[in-house]
Amino acid sequence: MGGFFATANKDDCVFDLFFGTDYHSHLGTRRAGMATFGKDGFNRAIHNIENSPFRTKFESDFHEMKGTLGIGCISDYEPQPLIVRSHHGTYAISTVGKINNPDVLTDEIIKNGSHFQELSSGSINATELVAALINQKDNFIEGIKYAQSRIEGSMSIMLLTPKGIYCARDRLGRTPIVLGMKKDGFCASFEKFAYLNLGYSDYKELGPGEIVIMTSEGVQTLVDPGKEMKICTFLWVYYGYPSSGYEGVSVEEMRYNCGASIAKRDKLTKNEVDIVAGVPDSGTAHAVGYANESGIPFSRPFIKYTPTWPRSFMPTIQSQRDMIAHMKLIPVHELIDGKRLLMIDDSIVRGTQLRETTEFLYNSGAKEVHVRPACPPIMFGCKYLNFSRSSSEMELIARRIINREEGANVERTILEDYANPDSDRYKRMLEGIRQQLGFTSLGYNRLDDMLEAVGIPKEKLCTYCWDGKE
Ligand code: SF4
Questions:
Q1: Does 232 contact ligand 1 (Cβ within 6 A)?
Q2: How buried is residue 307: exposed, middle or buried, by Cβ count under 10 Å (0-12/13-18/19+)?
Q3: Are 178 and 294 in a shared domain?
Q4: What percent of the chain has pLDDT over 70?
Q5: Could you report the per-residue pLDDT of 410-430, keeping only the tens digit for each?
Q6: 300 and 368 assigned to the same domain
Q7: Ligand 1 atom closest to Cα of 232?
Q8: Which domain holds residue 267?
Q9: pTM above 0.90, yes or no
Q10: CATH number, domain at 345?
């Protein structure tokens, strides 16, 4: 995925930019960057953050960079922000989103006589492609609208110019942009909590497709928000930081409600389970909700070792990442040995990690391991954001089980039947997953219950990864 932060201040903005960007570190693991504009012009730094955290990598830039306007980003993919010289003048650009038709767009730009230079791993830098699309039009507003209309996928943009910072939320608002305000200026942020400790208070949340320009003096709306919205529901389930919130709905509270709704439907009682636990960290709030609703005690049978692990070593190879995830968990034998545990995880994607966690619990003496994922089975790969937890649909545990039952090329209507929690096919799929991952019992949250925990009308939420509905 990725996240970004921007600030426009009367005085130097680098302190706010540095910490505001750092507070997005949970959204990406590969590259990070900051760009500023001040009386000495543009300045920029980009670093690889795969093996060390943002704050360590940007410490010297923090002391050297200056400016009153700044944008910063954490990226799972291409290096950014980029500084671009065009007929609009010089500007810096950062993006969050996914382009599904890069080849068509690239060919068109090249035919018009432009070129690309920021290749990474043989691919065009997606942020450079967005800049090239913006440069096709006479001004920034028309350019941003043109880029967003041509991109298949989703694209939110921050654009730093000498006159102010343009902030453009993607057309269907799949990812958020919120604005904060303080005496000395304004900020724009993917994560709402990122500016609170910097002294900003909430100013406003951009609507889908809304474009504003932000200076230290104020915020001006250039394009009004659209009516249609499809915000990513996974922001609440997994991606978002617990202290964040989107569309006025707190992440932590939604997770708590999700856990409570699973407990309401669950048939397990206090006599059948000893403790409820969350897979740290994203399963914890769900588990607290479950425990409080069911009356089964909450406990922490394993604890994440956080002092050095957050990003001291983050390889790009999935098997090594799984190994690191496992290494971070330390068991508390007294809470596991001889116990019947009910584990709540935010979701099951490929199942590899949860199977290993379950084996680890059995090896540590657990008698039973019941699993309750906080969202329904993931059936479809995300095509709107760079949702990087699986690289192909056939990696998804639900699809692997369906594939085993039905063979390849399953009809859409059959897949939809598998997604229906009242169907026989769904029950067969669940049993297949349970057996494959070695759980004592398995019960997913239902889509209707999960959406009720968010509390926003379904038509405003993206639920594609669970029900395939666009
Ligand atoms: S498909 Fe899933 S991960 Fe992608 S935007 Fe929709 S809800 Fe979010």
A1: yes
A2: exposed
A3: no
A4: 93
A5: 898 999 999 999 999 999 999
A6: yes
A7: 8
A8: 254-467
A9: yes
A10: 3.40.50.2020
